[in-house]
UniProtKB/TrEMBL annotation, chain B:
<dbReference type="InterPro" id="IPR043429">
    <property type="entry name" value="ArtM/GltK/GlnP/TcyL/YhdX-like"/>
</dbReference>
<keyword id="KW-0812">Transmembrane</keyword>
<dbReference type="InterPro" id="IPR035906">
    <property type="entry name" value="MetI-like_sf"/>
</dbReference>
<feature type="domain" description="ABC transmembrane type-1">
    <location>
        <begin position="20"/>
        <end position="209"/>
    </location>
</feature>
<dbReference type="Pfam" id="PF00528">
    <property type="entry name" value="BPD_transp_1"/>
</dbReference>
<dbReference type="InterPro" id="IPR000515">
    <property type="entry name" value="MetI-like"/>
</dbReference>
<keyword id="KW-1003">Cell membrane</keyword>
<keyword id="KW-0813">Transport</keyword>
<keyword id="KW-1133">Transmembrane helix</keyword>
<comment type="similarity">
    <text>Belongs to the binding-protein-dependent transport system permease family.</text>
</comment>
<feature type="transmembrane region" description="Helical">
    <location>
        <begin position="188"/>
        <end position="206"/>
    </location>
</feature>
<keyword id="KW-0472">Membrane</keyword>
<protein>
    <submittedName>
        <fullName>Amino acid ABC transporter permease</fullName>
    </submittedName>
</protein>
<feature type="transmembrane region" description="Helical">
    <location>
        <begin position="20"/>
        <end position="46"/>
    </location>
</feature>
<dbReference type="InterPro" id="IPR010065">
    <property type="entry name" value="AA_ABC_transptr_permease_3TM"/>
</dbReference>
<feature type="transmembrane region" description="Helical">
    <location>
        <begin position="58"/>
        <end position="79"/>
    </location>
</feature>
């Protein structure tokens, strides 16, 4: 792991549990995320990955345990969710850009209306970020005029322009055509190299291996295995993780056969 | 005979137009109040709070199950009797049509808000917008666009329903027509004229609504 052992975690989850009515979706989650660390969460569909991310910025509230974000205790009644969300960026599977606003207004909404920054300052940063993801020429376009991959890169910029301390990514390439996946993953990889603290849910195994400092494997609402990517992918400890990875390798071999 | 009809029409026109203006005033006020109130009412219905939901439900059912005419009578004759509140027939007409219009536009607005994907709220919240800001910058502008065509349909219904207010003594266009008929006996000509007026008011709106419906999707 890359973090310095003396540093204190940005996010610390202790015994977190969450249920929807009677259905338990998360249980006994213990997790510390350190500054600059890239955590990738893997797991079968429905195991609670999205819910876990959504609990971190208060889109869902936990029923048990505690979440600490830097110095703040994040309880459901915590009055400063807005302040926390400003500092935790989130990117979604289906982008969720605001369709009635131009790209640049999508990006500036948070910095101007929530953070009350000056227009000049926010605009300069927005343009710099757009430049970095190669979409400066789309600043005045509407979301519907962009491809999925472009929309997703804009969504990343929208989150980044708030200068978050942590970025959450929930299967951000799952809705994209294969040729657009790469352009989005490259942006994320670049972010990771620049030292952004990231928590990523993904089904792209190659990307997970390349970007992660640490892999968490979830099943039925619990983290059942964690480790560095090399050891996780080469020798998973639990049967569940083995079977999960097996499925991906099988699909890879199908692809191989098709090519032949 | 031909000439006589035309002459009569010209003679009665000022009175008919006066009635028409009254009709339009009632419709305009009601449409304005319905729109403002309806948007708020629709937004309130999307908030999940039990007491609030019961309250809005109750209000909605009052206007769904009781005819407008009965409401007009109730407000015009009942309010002075039971509550000692006296309103002019014009005010009663605007009040009832607005209260009814609020439920109608409210339903339109609720549908529009609910048709906006949950992801829009999630995305808005995740950049730190407060609830008010979320409605103001994200949900409301999108809902408004979707609301326009069905709202216009409600507006034409409000215009048509103003004709009921004749029964609580508003001298709107139908009443004006009746007065002329009583005086002259030219029922067909005058009713034909009313027919034409309503058509002239409502048909363009209905065409507009259909056009917008196509262009917005
Ligand atoms: N708002 C909700 N109300 C009720 N149940 C929910 C809600 N959101 C999620 N769930 C349930 O919680 C469980 C975990 O869902 P979650 O979306 O976190 O899974 P996931 O790991 O992200 O799955 P996927 O890989 O398919 O995205 C699922 O069984 C789901 O049905
Ligand atoms: Mg998910």
């Amino acid at each position: 792991m890359t973090h310095d052992a003396a540093a204190s975690p940005i996010l610390k989850l202790m015994n977190v549990g969450k249920s929807f009515r009677k259905q338990v979706v998360l249980k006994n989650i213990h997790l510390s995320v350190y500054p600059g660390e890239v955590t990738v969460i893997l797991g079968p569909s429905g195991c609670g990955k999205s819910t876990l991310l959504r609990c971190l910025n208060g889109l869902e509230f936990i029923n048990e345990g505690s979440i600490r974000f830097n110095e703040l205790e994040l309880t459901p009644k915590c009055p400063q969710w807005q302040a926390v969300r400003e500092r935790i960026g989130m990117v979604f599977q289906s982008y969720h850009l605001f369709p009635h606003m131009k790209v640049i207004d999508n990006i500036l909404l948070g910095p101007l209306k929530v953070q009350k920054r000056s227009k000049d300052d926010a605009l300069a940063q927005a343009e710099e970020l757009l430049e970095r993801v190669g979409l400066l020429d789309k600043r005045d376009a509407y979301p519907r005029e962009l491809s999925g991959g472009q929309q997703q890169r804009i969504a990343i910029v929208r989150a980044l322009c708030m200068n978050p301390e942590v970025m959450l990514f929930d299967e951000v390439t799952a809705a994209l055509d294969p040729e657009m996946v790469k352009e989005v993953l490259e942006v994320m990889l670049q972010l990771a190299r620049q030292g952004m603290t990231m928590i990523i849910v993904t089904h792209e195994m190659g990307f997970a291996r390349a970007v992660a400092d640490r892999i968490l494997f979830m099943d039925k609402g619990s983290i059942i295995e964690q480790g560095n990517p090399t050891s996780f992918f080469s020798e998973p400890q639990t049967d569940r993780a083995k079977r999960f990875l097996q499925q991906f390798y099988e699909i890879e071999t199908w692809k191989g056969r098709e090519v032949i | 005979m031909e000439l006589l009809g035309l002459e009569l029409l010209l003679q009665s026109m000022p009175q008919l137009v006066k009635g028409l203006i009254q009709t339009l005033m009632i419709a305009c006020y009601s449409i304005i109040f319905s729109t403002i109130g309806g948007i708020v009412f629709g937004a309130l219905q999307t908030i999940r709070l039990l007491w609030l939901n019961l309250l809005t439900r109750f209000y909605l059912e009052l206007f769904r199950s009781i005819p407008i005419l009965v409401w007009l009578f109730f407000v015009y004759f009942g309010l002075p009797l039971f509550f000692n509140v006296h309103l002019s027939s014009f005010a009663c007409a605007v009040l009832v049509l607005s209260l009814w219009g609020i439920t109608e536009i409210g339903e339109v607005a609720r549908g529009a808000f609910q048709s906006i994907a949950r992801g829009q709220s999630d995305a808005g919240r995740s950049i730190g917008l407060r609830t008010i800001q979320l409605y103001r910058y994200i949900l409301f502008p999108q809902a408004l666009r979707r609301m326009i065509p069905p709202s216009i349909n409600v507006y034409t219904r409000i215009i048509k329903t103003t004709s009921l207010t004749v029964l609580i003594g508003v001298t709107e266009v139908v009443k004006a027509g009746q007065q002329i008929i009583e005086r002259t006996g030219e029922a067909i000509l005058i009713y034909g004229c009313l027919f034409f007026f309503y058509f002239l008011l409502c048909y363009p709106l209905s065409v507009l609504s259909r056009k917008l419906e196509k262009s917005i999707i």
